[in-house]
Amino acid sequence: MRITYDDIKHRLQPPLDCSELKDLRGEYVHNRLIINYENTDFSGCVLFRCFPNEIPNAIEVNPAQSESDLTLKGANLFDADLTDADLIGAILEGANLKGAYLWGANLQWANLYGANLKGAKLRWADLIGADLEGANLQGADLEDADLTEANLANANLEGANLQGADLQGATYNSETSFEESNITQEQLDSMRFVEDED
Question: What's the mean pLDDT when you consider all of the chain?
C-alpha cells in the first residue's frame, strides 16, 4: 500500500531542544525527539511516543523505539503519494523518494541532502531554499516547480524536466549534472555558480 502524507506527518516536528528549557514539569509532549535534556526537570511530564526512553521522572506512554520512528532522515518513501503535502523545513536527508508523487508539495527550506528523488513527480512543488546538495533528481519532473535559492551543488538532474521551473538564485557547481535535461540558457543564467570546495 502506498505511503501517504497522513502516514508521515507525525514525523515532521523538529527535535525538542531542551538546552534552554529547564522546567517541563506537568507538560505534555508527543511525537518528539528530545535532545539536550540532561538539565531539564521532567517531573510529571507526559511523553507520548517520544525518544529517547527512560528520561528521569517523566511519565512515558507508548515510547518510540528509535530516532527513525520520529524523523524522516533516511526514510523509505519510495513511490509515496505526498501530493500537496506540507513539508516545510522537513528533514529528509538521505530519504528514498524515488518515484514519489510530490505534485504541489511545499518543501520550502527542506533538507533533502543526498536524497534519492529519481523519477519523482515534483511538478508545481515549492522548493524555495531547499537543500538538494548531492540529491539524485535524475528523470524527475520539475515542471513549473519553484527552486528559487535552492542548493543544487553536486545534484544529478540528468534527464530532468525543468520546463517553466524557477531557478532564480539557485546555486550549482561543476559537479551538478544537467545532462539531457531541458534546462534553458535563461534558467542557467538566473542561477549562481559556486566554486567547488577543496
Answer: 95
